[in-house]
């Protein structure tokens, strides 16, 4: 048997004389239904109507006689033809129809059903076994402790952005420690319509360490102290901005506090004891920065070579704004109160602040101004 390159099998029509002479016997092509020729025993199974499957040309085929469509196997080397495409489309339509039927299942969205669903989600913690936890990628790693997750009320009123540098800033080798990097200043700049960020660091490491220590120990109501100078290091361009960061957080692991040790917060109010838990704060934006090429012909509108940072106490309006933001995680009735306000027709307005006074440091400008939004 000779098969051509197109995977076709030639038929020798010269073997059927009835095709060329109308007077010849055509019983070989058109047998009499009442006098059928004997069937070869090898083909007897083709007449079986019992449900099941049989194999034809290496593929499993339904023999039940039902109208259930057969899924055509995906043969990568076989040329796509009209028949294969039609069968594939039919199987896809059947699958989509079944999915649509499953999607039509009614879901109970009543308040009681939602409460039941929420309560059932806590069942996993009733019989929690720490030894049953397995790391998805490291078989040799085992869990040693577990923490509940709560929003961090101490940080919730602050806004945090995540900056990624293409190269380590500070002009020091990667293996040299630089304590100045975690207290740098980023100042929005503009030159000929281009927006970028000016990066400032302290001159000496001791100045950065002293600035961080004084910031942690400072009383918010204390008078203004000696300013800390930050010197211009270089300019950075914003390569990429993500306005929504749903999968990255600030996470603080807290192992609990001694009940005998009580402290006040930054505003002199009694600080509640924090239980053992992992506390999180969401990140507002994420940006990627790279070094800006130095151009002597750039015209800066307002370039500062030194920024002197001092502590400024918060005003009454700023404290009220902070308390309003903290209500999101401190007031159990916050969402109900917000719903009542919306029902009364109050319109929530969005203010584009130019500074972030929550942290008590003046001179930090909101980076949203960099992008002209």
UniProtKB/TrEMBL annotation:
This protein's record includes keyword Transferase: no
GO biological process: one example: transcription elongation by RNA polymerase II
Record keyword Nucleus present: yes
Keywords: Nucleus
InterPro entries with a match to the protein in the record: RNA_pol_II-assoc_Paf1
Lineage: superkingdom: Eukaryota
Assigned GO CC terms: Cdc73/Paf1 complex
Membrane spanning residue stretches: none
Pfam families, per database record: Paf1
One of the record's GO molecular function terms: chromatin binding
Subcellular localization(s) per the UniProt record: Nucleus
PANTHER family: RNA POLYMERASE II-ASSOCIATED FACTOR 1 HOMOLOG
Record-stated family: Belongs to the PAF1 family.
Stated name of the protein: RNA polymerase II-associated factor 1 homolog
């Amino acid at each position: 048997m000779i098969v051509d390159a197109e995977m076709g099998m030639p038929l020798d029509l010269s073997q059927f004389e009835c095709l060329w002479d109308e007077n010849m016997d055509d019983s070989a092509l058109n047998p009499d239904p009442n006098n059928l020729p004997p069937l070869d025993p090898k083909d007897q199974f083709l007449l079986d109507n019992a449900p099941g499957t049989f194999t034809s040309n290496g593929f499993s085929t339904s023999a039940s006689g039902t109208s259930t469509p057969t899924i055509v196997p995906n043969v990568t080397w076989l040329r796509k033809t009209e028949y294969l495409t039609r069968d594939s489309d039919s199987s896809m339509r059947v699958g989509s129809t079944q999915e649509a039927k499953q999607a039509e299942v009614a879901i109970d969205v009543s308040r009681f059903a939602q409460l039941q669903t929420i309560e059932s989600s806590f069942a996993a913690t009733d019989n929690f076994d720490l030894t049953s936890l397995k790391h998805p990628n490291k078989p040799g790693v085992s869990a040693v402790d577990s923490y509940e997750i709560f929003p961090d009320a101490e940080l919730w009123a602050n806004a945090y952005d995540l900056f990624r540098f293409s190269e380590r800033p500070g002009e020091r080798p990667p293996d040299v420690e630089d304590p100045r990097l975690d207290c740098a200043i980023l100042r929005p700049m503009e030159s000929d319509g281009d927006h970028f960020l000016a990066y400032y660091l302290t001159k000496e490491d001791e100045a950065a360490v002293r600035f961080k220590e004084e910031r942690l120990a400072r009383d918010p109501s204390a008078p203004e102290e000696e300013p800390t100078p930050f010197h211009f290091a270089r300019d950075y361009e914003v390569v990429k901005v993500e306005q929504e960061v749903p999968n990255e957080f600030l996470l603080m692991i807290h192992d609990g506090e001694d009940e005998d040790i009580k402290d006040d917060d930054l505003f002199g109010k009694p600080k509640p004891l924090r239980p053992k838990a992992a506390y999180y704060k969401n990140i507002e934006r994420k940006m990627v920065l790279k070094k800006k090429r130095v151009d002597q012909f750039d015209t800066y509108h307002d370039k500062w070579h030194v920024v002197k940072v001092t502590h400024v106490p918060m005003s009454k309006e700023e404290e009220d704004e902070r308390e309003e933001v903290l209500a999101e995680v401190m007031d159990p009735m916050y969402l109900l109160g917000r719903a009542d306000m919306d029902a009364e027709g109050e319109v929530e307005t969005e203010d584009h602040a130019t500074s972030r006074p929550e942290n008590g440091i003046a001179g930090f400008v909101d980076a949203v101004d960099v992008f002209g939004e």
